[in-house]
Automatic annotation (TrEMBL):
Pathway: Isoprenoid biosynthesis; isopentenyl diphosphate biosynthesis via DXP pathway; isopentenyl diphosphate from 1-deoxy-D-xylulose 5-phosphate: step 4/6. It holds the Pfam family YgbB. It comes from Caldinitratiruptor microaerophilus. This is 2-C-methyl-D-erythritol 2,4-cyclodiphosphate synthase. Residues 1-154 form the 2-C-methyl-D-erythritol 2,4-cyclodiphosphate synthase domain. The lineage of its organism: Bacteria, Bacillati, Bacillota, Clostridia, Eubacteriales. Its cofactor is a divalent metal cation.
Amino acid sequence: MRIGIGYDIHRLVPGRRLVLGGVEIPWRLGLEGHSDADALTHAVIDAVLGAAGLGDIGQLFPDTDPAFAGADSVALLERVVALVRERGWRVGNVDATVLCERPRIAPHREAMRRRLAAALGVAPEDVGIKATTNEGLGAIGAGEGIACYAVALLVRDSP
């Protein structure tokens, strides 16, 4: 078994869609970034890559490469899972936490779990998604952005 941790944070800005865990959430602000800026999926990608010893999302999908402008982060996650499988690993489970003041994540949690589980090749119950506020503290607490943490467990594929 191998364990990896991932983290991502993006600023909330007007004029962008808000995508988390591959799910578009109706909100007046969206996350700023080169791709779809899906901070939750980015944290999961980094956790999986870290567990496999394969670097990080910026190495594989650099924000300086126009090919990834507006990219669907779940499609990037699927590419990472394929890469990990080529090396003899499979995802056991993922657990993630979304930190934001608004919008509320609970109404979208199950859709996120299903979308991420499908990309990871696991059952929805193997994906944990929790949400919390920052109790009004710091940039997250001021509603300026959304941050996400994720932990991934990889297990060796059976021969």
